[in-house]
Task: inverse folding
């Protein structure tokens, strides 16, 4: 009898520890998702213009899942200590529902990250940058965002300045190829915002123009957000799985 | 001789024209590492350094023609005339002349480290200006084009390079041709989906098993029973043979 008593206490201790970790992770997940939702990175207008804001849906789900995990972990601790079948049954069922929601959020975040290929941004940039009759405000936003991106990150286009030569674009309709092989924002600018050497920039002499593409600067923060939501959620779910299995085993051993 | 008629050689005949001397090398796209060596309407040549050194008095012109019209160009066509005006290129003008310079613009030898190039097609301000027939305007199509340098003293061609190899400019595609369909799912996303689905399935199966097998009391007593006082009740046995029936 003493041995089974020890087993009970060990299992209870493990379950309480597991629930404490789940509670803390729930708070961390909520904090991280609030950060993702409220702190859009510089390229966010480009994401909005692609009408693909799955990462935000995933982050909103993450906020509520995090709070639910925290509340349920407290319920779980109480249920384990009291060895109450009802409380633990409620806990298990609610945790399974939360598990399903968090699973949806992780998969959405991971899929969203996959869908943002360079071609998506390339097509959007060519069709909307410096569009002469902007359809709506988002075209102006796209132009402004690209100008800021190219100035701050010293980059040009998505893959490089050759994007402007390989494809026709809204920009090309209003700016002749001979005067503007690529936009002025691709030139190295001095403190006043004028090209250091305009002929050097038009020729493409290295040092007077930005030769690398902006895709890395865009995808870096986007990927960081997506990975944060997707993989942290995945880790929490793996831990939750173990705790839930332990709770089910504990529940089945409680006397009615 | 005065009064002669039917004379063989008029005294005021112009001197016989000598063909222009061939100097080399032929013009070529620059070998420098430039992003804009060819664009949709411009291209960049190396300057003709140390090529026309024997012709210090000449003016060096660049002749640009479509590849199919290069062989029909006549060296005696003058620059700045309607027959060689840029604004009428390529119809009806078959070849235009532009980028005139004296030898002083191309000092020999070329200083090491300097980028000495000519950008053909860079002047957009005079592209439609008929009063500037020698405009270095943007080329009207992807070509292919051939170019050569021609040195003129006055209006007499004295030296020329061979025609260059055909130069084709870049043709731009429409952005509608960019494929934006999803490139498939990455390994990470597939891993997350499969693993989480399996975990959820195990949990649901566990829940069902838990409820079915342990919904009633059947699981409880064997494992984690609470400590209960084990009391043995005294059991008085009444043997039937102890009854007074034995008195009979």
Result:
């Amino acid at each position: 009898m003493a041995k089974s008593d020890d087993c009970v206490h060990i299992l209870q201790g493990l379950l309480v520890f597991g629930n404490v970790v789940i509670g803390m992770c729930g708070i961390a997940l909520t904090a991280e998702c609030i950060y993702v939702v409220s702190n859009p990175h510089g390229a966010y207008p480009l994401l909005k213009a692609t009408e693909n804001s799955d990462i935000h849906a995933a982050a909103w789900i993450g906020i509520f899942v995090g709070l639910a995990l925290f509340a349920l972990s407290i319920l779980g601790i109480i249920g384990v200590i009291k060895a109450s079948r009802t409380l633990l049954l409620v806990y298990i069922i609610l945790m399974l529902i939360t598990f399903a929601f968090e699973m949806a959020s992780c998969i959405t975040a991971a899929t969203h990250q996959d869908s943002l290929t360079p071609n998506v941004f390339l097509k959007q940039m060519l069709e909307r940058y410096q569009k002469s009759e902007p359809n709506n405000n988002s075209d102006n936003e796209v132009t402004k965002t690209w100008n800021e991106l190219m100035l701050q990150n010293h980059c040009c286009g998505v893959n490089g300045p050759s994007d402007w030569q390989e494809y026709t674009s809204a920009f090309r309709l209003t700016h002749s190829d001979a005067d503007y092989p690529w936009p002025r924002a691709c030139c190295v600018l001095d403190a006043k915002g004028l090209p250091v050497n305009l002929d050097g920039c038009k020729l493409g002499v290295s040092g007077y123009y930005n030769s690398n593409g902006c895709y890395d600067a865009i995808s870096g923060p986007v990927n960081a957000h997506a990975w944060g939501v997707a993989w942290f959620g995945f880790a929490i779910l793996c831990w939750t799985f173990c705790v839930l299995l332990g709770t089910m085993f504990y529940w089945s051993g409680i006397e009615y | 001789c005065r009064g002669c008629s039917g004379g063989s050689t008029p005294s005021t005949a112009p001197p016989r024209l000598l063909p222009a001397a061939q100097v080399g090398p032929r013009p070529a796209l620059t070998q420098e590492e430039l992003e804009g060596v060819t664009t949709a309407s411009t291209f960049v040549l190396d300057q003709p350094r140390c090529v026309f050194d024997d012709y210090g008095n000449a003016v060096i012109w660049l002749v640009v023609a479509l590849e199919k019209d290069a062989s029909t160009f006549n060296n005696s066509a003058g620059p700045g005339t309607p027959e060689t005006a840029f604004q009428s290129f390529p119809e009806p003008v078959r070849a235009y002349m532009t980028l005139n310079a004296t030898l002083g613009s191309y000092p020999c030898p070329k200083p090491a480290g300097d980028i000495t190039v000519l950008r053909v097609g860079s002047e957009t301000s005079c592209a439609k200006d008929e009063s500037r027939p020698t405009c270095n305007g943007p080329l009207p199509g992807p070509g292919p084009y051939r170019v050569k340098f021609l040195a003129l003293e006055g209006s007499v061609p004295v030296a020329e390079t061979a025609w260059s190899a055909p130069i084709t400019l870049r043709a731009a595609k429409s952005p509608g041709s960019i494929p934006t369909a999803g490139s498939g799912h990455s390994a990470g996303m597939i891993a997350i989906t499969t693993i989480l689905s399996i975990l959820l399935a195990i949990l649901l199966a566990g829940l069902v098993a838990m409820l079915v097998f342990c919904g009633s009391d059947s699981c409880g007593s064997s494992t984690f029973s609470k400590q209960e006082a084990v009391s043995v009740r005294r059991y008085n046995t009444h043997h039937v043979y102890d009854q007074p029936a034995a008195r009979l």
